[in-house]
Amino acid sequence: MAEIWENFLYWKRKFTTDESAMARSYTPKVVTANALVEGDVIYLTADDRWSRRHEEAELIEDEAHAQLRLLHAQSQKGLIVGAYLADAKAGPDGPEPTHFREAFRTRGPSNYAHGKQETGNV
Amino acid sequence: MYRYSDFDAAFVAQRNAQFRSQVERRIDGSLTEDEFRPLRLMNGLYLQLHAYMLRVAVPYGTLSAAQMRQLAHIADRWDKGYGHFTTRQNIQFNWPKLTDVPDILDALAEVQMHAIQTSGNTIRNVTADHFAGAAADEIEDPRPTAELIRQWSTDHPEFQFLPRKFKIGITGSPNDRAVIKSHDIGLRIVRGGSGKIGYEVVVGGGLGRTPMIGQVIRPFLKKEDLLPYLEAIVSVYNLMGRRDNKYKARIKITVFENGMEAFRDAVEERFKVTRTEFSGIDQAVLRDIEAQFAAPAFRTAPTTAYETARDTDPVFRSWTDTNLADHRAPGHAIVTVSLKAHGATPGDATSAQMRLLADLADRYGHGELRISHEQNVILPHVHKSDLPALHAALKGEGLATANVGLISDIIACPGMDYCALATARSIPVAQEIATHFKAIGLEEEIGALKIKISGCINACGHHHVGHIGILGLDRAGVENYQITLGGDATENARIGERAGPGFAYDQVVPAIERLLRAYLSLRVDPAESFAVAFQRLGAEPFKAALYPAEAARDAA
Ligand code: HEM
Ligand code: SF4
């Protein structure tokens, strides 16, 4: 399945776009989801783990690769729920969110120090 | 209070057992999320931003002390020690683990509660006036009718897949405290010409992205015709309602697009049939239910302790000024306990607060509690002589805030602090407005005012019907807040009008302050509330206060 997609996306890209221009215009992404049992926000890492920290996510700068990683995430039905690609950018400690919604997801609610703001709950 | 029949108990137990096995099958991989999602939603389980959320119905807003204690227990055992009471008289737990939810549902069933039909395109929890059974202005307690509707609508085979969610609200008083005109169906108990009690039926109200005020479809419906008539409305909607576009699927759009005349004709036509299908057994059921809602034995006692405390204790006095409402029994009062301490999250109660409220309900309030759509807790039947002791006890858990109906008594939806659909936060905006106006000492002076805040266009925080409504949006990746003015949530329901361009997050409080300072300088006297002044003056002077630069330019 994955190979078919890889081929498809490769050819699609080759024939429909100027590769270098596209690489430049693509907003980098991370794959994020919620853990199936706890519901906690999680991120897909480059070495195929699910991390609770945004900095550990794989920063994906190529659209075809992003689609593949998303498909890979979505196939893990027994671990995660609601995987999607979220905009991100490179930062000193790893990828950082660019939109405030994603920034809240890295922390938890603002009215209590719950979620990832609780010590030990990252 | 209503007690489950054996049938009710067996039904809930069966649903819980089904859900337990559905969760197991989701975890072991036999169910995909696409298959599981509708099943969990049927049991009130959502996935929010940071965790799951379980929405539990508080039918018509009525809770017993034992139920409140169990909610506290659930909050401690499986959540983070608190719960969030919502504008639809539900309680939401923000942090349950998927694997714990079946146990939570069993714990709820122990006290005759559940989360069925708190989600999905079904008839949702029926909401009622939170002063039901106690209010001095009440014609009849609306809760037996609400319970009858609950029994009729729960698992109704024809109405499990309506075009969209369906909300019914009911009041037994001419003063509408249940916002019935913003419901798909609103019911008002009225006295007909002959003195007979019946219902005024309102249909097609709703908030969300296309707010509409409900219109009367039947000025007087005989009591015994209620279920056949509701059945007629909902089945006409089930057929006529649009399923091609989720944003046009609510009954408000069906009524709007077809016109009230045509819709009414279709309902009356269908009613001829449904009327013959009900054998009258529903009326026997209703009489049984009514017996279970018999008022407690109110006592006759002097109220001197209350009057003395009012004369000697100014803190108590100001609390009684704002937090009490007229009770129908002499010597009694309805107490609204504010869940809006300045800086607190509107509608949140800790487990300790829930336990204290349960204990106080047992001690002073015949074991009864109510949840209001304004996200406060009500002790409906308190003898006035008990109020000083009650007030003193409430202070222990930070529950004695004297602000009901004032600027800090804000309705706020969870917004982007919890909700996956949100476009901006609402809770911190509410917190800042409350603390700011207390800090500058204007709260009492401003007087009666309803601010309502939603974190997106869905309008769960009722912003359209706030005197001041605040709607949080995402404008180019930044939180931005639109202000609406002049809304009304009472029997004179009105949708507020948009004041103008939105405000950045940190400009909301200053904007509200300019607006209210304008009101203070424009009102005839302190008895003229913001809402009344707005109706008298129109929007212009208030818009000028909100947008001083534009006003100056226009004047130049
Ligand atoms: C998981 C969280 C929630 C979700 C996903 C959600 C979803 C929605 C949606 C989609 C609508 C718009 C319906 C329409 O226009 O057809 C809506 C309306 C509404 N919701 Fe929520 N909501 C949530 C939480 C809440 C909370 C916490 C409350 C109570 C404080 C609430 C009460 C309402 C009310 C009163 C309305 C407007 C009345 C109407 O249905 O027109 N909701 N909600
Ligand atoms: S109004 Fe929007 S943000 Fe607020 S609870 Fe409803 S869906 Fe969520």
Verbal overview:
The complex is a heterodimer of chains A (122) and B (556). Chain A is an alpha+beta fold and 122 residues long. Chain A has one domain (25-110). In chain A, 34% of the residues lie in helices and 24% in strands. Chain A has helices at 2-16, 19-25, 63-74, 100-107; strands at 29-35, 41-44, 50-51, 80-91, 94-97. Chain A has a 5-stranded antiparallel sheet, sandwiched between helices. In chain A, helix 1 packs antiparallel against helix 3 (63-74). Chain A is globular, with a radius of gyration of 16 Å. Chain A starts with a helix and ends in a 15-residue tail after the last helix. Chain B is of the alpha+beta class and 556 residues long. Chain B has 4 domains: 6-110, Alpha-Beta Complex (Sulfite Reductase Hemoprotein, domain 2), CATH 3.90.480; 142-292, Sulfite Reductase Hemoprotein, domain 1; 304-395, Sulfite Reductase Hemoprotein, domain 2, CATH 3.90.480; 411-555, Sulfite Reductase Hemoprotein, domain 1, CATH 3.30.413.10. Chain B contains 19 helices and 21 strands. In chain B, the strands form 4 sheets. In chain B, strands 16, 17, 18, 19, 20 and 21 form a 6-stranded mixed sheet that branches. In chain B, strands 1-2-5-4-13 form a 5-stranded antiparallel sheet. In chain B, helix 5 links the parallel strand 6 and strand 7 (168-171). Chain B is globular and about 65 Å long. The mean pLDDT of chain B is 95. At the A-B interface, helix 4 of A face helix 14 of B. Bound molecules: protoporphyrin IX containing FE (HEM) and iron/sulfur cluster. Iron/sulfur cluster binds at residues 413-415, 419, 421-422, 454-456, 458-461 of chain B.
Integer tally of domains of chain A = 1
**Which consecutive residue ranges of chain B, at least 5 long each, have pLDDT under 50?**
none
Cofactors and ligands present? protoporphyrin IX containing FE, iron/sulfur cluster
Structural class of chain B: alpha+beta
Q: Biggest interface, which chains?
A: A-B, 25 and 32 residues
Q: What value does the average pLDDT of chain A take?
A: 86
Biggest sheet strand order of chain A reads 3-2-1-4-5
**What's the helical proportion of residues of chain B?**
25-40%
Strand content of chain B: 15-25%
Structural Rg of chain A: 16 Å
Order of helices and strands of chain A: HHEEEHEEH
The helix count of chain B comes to 19
